[in-house]
Task: inverse folding
């Protein structure tokens, strides 16, 4: 027992996982995202959110992490084919090695099963090992204990949810179960090109531990891409808008450069 009377209680040291997206992690003092936290990737259509999430998923799985990518918008087959052709990233191989699991989720199925979700039967830490019987299509289940979870996107789900109250209840269950995995979680929301709010309902940004905003800013005839860390609960971070490009190596972040 120490002077303060504490019985050598173990306070768990936070663990940070890099995003592995170009120099983005250098914008964060801790060098990555704290395990157990959820960050929002927010921005307009075509601003690079899915690109960022896919690049992070690929690089993390390649380093041996277990990554789950739930896609509410695009067909995972299309994503896999596109990134293989554009960037040479072999998500097929990572999937067959059991490091990556990409699943298409129909937001209408989810919204129909919201009653059950709220009762905690779906997405409630349903941690299953690889090779188990596939779940019924409407259920979102984890194939393994994940290190990284991507939800692309909540906007698709919020559109499919007729009832705002149900959507909020769903969000709560979703965020609680994400937290329980002790993984790094990235959830995507679609906004206006220059966002005033970072999600449709405006509540997602309060539930998350960090907000990253993607911009595709037009000035006369030119558009410039930029990324900004708006908030992080677990670390200090760079405050400026940092330009980035999508190249044949994926996202490249230019820390030293200014927007315009
Ligand atoms: N191979 C590529 N080379 C250059 N830019 C690309 C390439 N593939 C995709 N992009 C750019 O990325 C954008 C799509 O980004 P995406 O991450 O899907 O946006 P969203 O924010 O809507 O998820 C496209 O509009 C295109 O400009
Ligand atoms: Mg997208």
Result:
């Amino acid at each position: 027992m120490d002077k303060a009377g504490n019985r050598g209680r173990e306070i768990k040291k936070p663990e940070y996982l890099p995003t592995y997206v170009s120099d983005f992690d250098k914008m964060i003092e801790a060098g990555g995202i704290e395990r157990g936290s959820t960050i929002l990737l927010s921005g307009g259509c075509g601003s690079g959110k899915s690109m960022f999430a896919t690049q992070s998923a690929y690089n993390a799985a390649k380093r041996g992490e277990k990554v789950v990518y739930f896609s509410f918008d695009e067909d995972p087959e299309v994503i896999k084919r596109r990134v293989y052709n554009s960037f040479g990233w072999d998500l097929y191989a990572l999937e067959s090695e059991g490091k990556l699991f990409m699943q298409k989720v129909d937001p209408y199925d989810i919204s129909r099963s919201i009653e059950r979700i709220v009762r905690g039967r779906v997405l409630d830490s349903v941690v299953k090992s690889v090779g188990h019987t596939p779940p019924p299509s409407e259920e979102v289940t984890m194939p393994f204990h994940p290190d990284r979870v991507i939800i692309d996107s909540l906007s698709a789900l919020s559109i499919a949810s007729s009832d705002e109250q149900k959507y909020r209840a769903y969000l709560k269950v979703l965020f609680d179960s994400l937290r329980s995995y002790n993984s790094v979680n990235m959830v995507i929301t679609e906004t206006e090109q220059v966002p005033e709010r970072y999600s449709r309902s405006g509540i997602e940004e309060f539930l998350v531990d960090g907000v990253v905003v993607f911009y595709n800013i037009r000035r006369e005839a030119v558009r410039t891409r930029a990324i900004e860390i708006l908030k992080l609960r677990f670390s200090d971070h760079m405050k400026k808008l940092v330009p980035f490009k999508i190249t044949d190596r994926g996202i490249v972040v230019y820390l030293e450069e200014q927007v315009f």
